[in-house]
Amino acid sequence: MSTTTPPRTAAAAADADTGARRTYLVKTLGCQMNVHDSEHMAGMLEQAGYVAASPQDAAEEAADIIVINTCAVRENAADKLYGNLGRLAGAKRSRPGMQIAVGGCLAQKDRAGIVERAPWVDVVFGTHNLDALPVLLERARHNQRAEVEIAESLQVFPSTLPTRRESVYAGWVSISVGCNNTCTFCIVPHLRGKERDRRPGEILAEVGALVGQGAIEVTLLGQNVNSYGVEFGDRGAFGKLLRAAGAIEGLERLRFTSPHPAAFTDDVIAAMAETPTVMPQLHMPLQSGSDRILRAMRRSYRSEKFLGILDRVRAAMPDAAITTDIIVGFPGETEEDFAETLRVVEASRFASAFTFQYSQRPGTPAADLPDQLPKEVVQERYQRLTDLQDRIALEESRAQVGRTVEVLVAEGEGRKDGATHRVTGRAADNRLVHLALPAGLAEEHQPRPGDLVTVTVTRAAPYHLVADSALDPVPAFAVRRTRAGDAWASRTAGGDHGAGDAAAAGGCGTGASGPTGPVVLGLPTLGRPAH
User: Fold this and answer.
1) Is 508 annotated among the ligand-binding residues?
2) Cα torsion for 404, 405, 406, 407, to the nearest 10°?
3) Rg (CA), the chain
4) Is the peptide bond before 258 cis (omega within 30 degrees of 0)?
5) Which residues touch 390 (CB under 8 Å, ≥6 apart)?
């Protein structure tokens, strides 16, 4: 059972000697769902009186509270966690009163084993009881011992928790948690439980609240978004939700991730194509192109059905960019099976692909299958797959040269922007675009994060586009300053990257500065209560 005692006031988060408010840092490992969970963790810590570490302290991991939000899906998830913990052990010895908390999927899976392996950890909490974090930290500090609390089922729906948003101009909204699928390689259903759907009114209220705070882009999140509605008996609910969310005034870009090919229906394609704010982008996990391997994975679709979905999506949205996930070296995969994957990848023309080498995950059915492949075989096939996808991605990117695109300027996406004097953002189809600014452009006319810039693509690389059309003799460049850019400017002008009104909601628990308080969305309680 999860702790339900409310956290103490800001005094509980103050240093006993100086009275200064204690600082926190949330480090996120894993998927978009984890990123969004980290926003909730940061929001709860701020509500309990903690403050985000400064960028410099965050970079040096010099915070009073460090929370690591873990993943159990990625191959090196445990290595990343214990590498982080090993590094933090020395920091804790030199910083009296520092606390380390571990949450997320690996915490749900390994439980007390984390403290046994890293006894300097103060708190371990799972995916079902995010709300317990502030109380567990205070209890561990008071009792001078590690607190491990793992709930077996969802205690509080995460979206009802306080949230400190990572971005002021774009946000995540969870439509469901958990998963009802039984893929043999995946441990997510075991760690996050069965799918639980939020009521549509709650979701639309949260999207509306985000837009009201300045966001112009929202991404709907779920382990399998297109099964949304099954819990309350409406199999067409996801398509309806796309249309309703897309109609919210002020929202300019709506995305979602991730669907499952087995449940992806034509009404969703129609909703995407007929709702102008739904972006021409789709992440559709393939996993394998071999029907035999798909069967062994318990993926309830086959390669021809998968390709048929892509054909229908492109017929409705010719400019759609489609991305995917692929696993190489699943147990029993033969060279013929792998050749089928290469065939489907060639036919699919993915804009990009997240490719993984299969590795055994204790607790998954696939971990006990015979015919586990030698590492060198998996590595060689992986290299062939990535070579093929790199070629396709470059060809698809080159087809974008000469196109006019509208780019939502992002904060900190381009690692080389300072050296190249470009800014970076995402086109409607979610491709990464680095764009040049006209020479001598006055500061008051320069695009800010959250603004939209119209440019022409001049050059292509496999996984990004360059748009230097502003430097052409006849420049192709236009800035549309948005209320999202205004909100970003307001947050930045606050001195701590976010002090001020609700429109300045943003920041993250990964070191960027943020608002002085969490963003607490006032959500209606429609239908069944939060659970």
Assistant:
1) no
2) -130
3) 23
4) yes
5) 462
Could you say which DSSP state residue 30 is in? S
CA 525, CA 73: separation in Å to the nearest integer?
33
Strands 65-70, 23-28: parallel, antiparallel or unpaired by DSSP? parallel
> Is 160:523 a contact under the CB 8 Å cutoff?
yes
Own/partner contacts of 523-527, CB < 8 Å, gap of 24 or more, are 523/159, 523/160, 523/202, 523/205, 523/206, 523/209, 524/201, 524/202, 524/205, 525/202, 526/199, 526/201, 526/202, 527/199, 527/201, 527/232
d(CA 6, CA 447) in angstroms, rounded, equals: 43
Q: Residue 156 — very low, low, confident or very high, per pLDDT cuts 50/70/90?
A: confident
- Full DSSP string of 243-278: HHHHTSTT--EEEEE---GGG--HHHHHHHHH-TTB
Token pair in block for residue 503: 């429109």
- Position 489 confidence tier, pLDDT thresholds 50, 70, 90: very high
Give the 3-state secondary structure of residue 378: helix
Question: CA 241, CA 229: separation in Å to the nearest integer?
Answer: 10
**183 has binding-site annotation:** yes
d(CA 172, CA 159): 10
User: Over the stretch 214-229, which tens digit does the pLDDT of each residue have?
Assistant: 999 999 999 899 999 9
Q: Which is it for strands 452-456 and 404-409: parallel, antiparallel or unpaired?
A: antiparallel
Ramachandran angles phi, psi of 212, nearest 5°: -65, -25
What single-letter amino acid sits at 469? S
Burial class (CB in 10 A: 0-12, 13-18, 19+), 355: middle
